[in-house]
Amino acid sequence: MPAVVDPIVVTSARGVRLTLSDGTEVIDGMSSWWAAIHGYRHPVLDEAVRSQLGDMAHVMFGGVTHHPAVELAETLVDIAPAGLEHVFLADSGSVSVEVAIKMALQYARGVGRSERTRLLTVRGGYHGDTLGCMSVCDPVNGMHSMFTGMLPEQIFAPVPSPNFGEKFDDSHVAEFADLLAARSAEIAAVIIEPVVQGAGGMRFYSSDYLRAVRRLCDEHEVPLIADEIATGFGRSGELFGCDHADVSPDIMCAGKALTGGYLTMAAAFRASPVHHAALRIERGRHPNRGFGHG
Ligand SMILES: *Cc1c(COP(=O)(O)O)cnc(C)c1O
What we know:
This protein has helices at residues 31-34, 43-55, 67-79, 93-110, 131-134, 174-183, 207-219, 242-245, 272-285, and strands at residues 10-14, 17-20, 25-27, 84-90, 118-122, 155-157, 187-192, 196-197, 203-204, 224-227, 251-254, 266-271. By secondary structure, it is α/β, with parallel strands linked by helices. It is built from nine helices and twelve strands. The structure holds pyridoxal-5'-phosphate.
């Protein structure tokens, strides 16, 4: 559905350039929303797609798998922050966030805390456009008022501060800490974009804030979900945003640059304790089944 302004028609692309239907060349300064990080028509990626098509395009992961998927998952585990050992491939960033939320809820049930059903996050965030994701996007930018009564009600702390590189002290995280302390009995997880709030406003905040969030989550035994969909794969100067703070989340989402913009695909990672606690629930309900997301 076209917006107010008619969209620009692209006929081909190479490197950083898009060729438009009237022959004009423009530089795509946002790399198809931060996905095409290696440029368009990259020879290595083009060849990988071509050669894979000679074997098969795709098969479902319901009860079957294939070597490229296994290799990808192993590579992701190798490069991800320490402790994230289990990978669930999803079809978009938003879906990986839904998956991450479900993992957190199942973890809460797995450790006997089924009353923990809410998420704590910060204002100014963006986590995707499906309904669960929308509930943790910034309430104003995310237009929550349009969906009142429909979205789950989550808990919001102020926008993270100070800015990246500025001096942090505990007062910056005080309100977040108070909310977590007061309401931890109902909080299944904290979800945050590490170090950079991307689509919500390109705000770069202190890695010490993120480190404090990690510490507070540990104190209250609340899992931390890092949404690395925008920040993953070197977009902020470290391989993952969490690497700036030297922290590992319990659950992590990656997407966008993951496929260099060639496919819509994302990944949700979880650490072993989350994995094993959640499996108790998953296996209990469905013997021989893993995480319940089709
Ligand atoms: C883009 C983005 C998403 C949503 O990913 P989609 O693949 O567009 O569904 C979620 N979280 C963050 C931080 C993002 O930048």
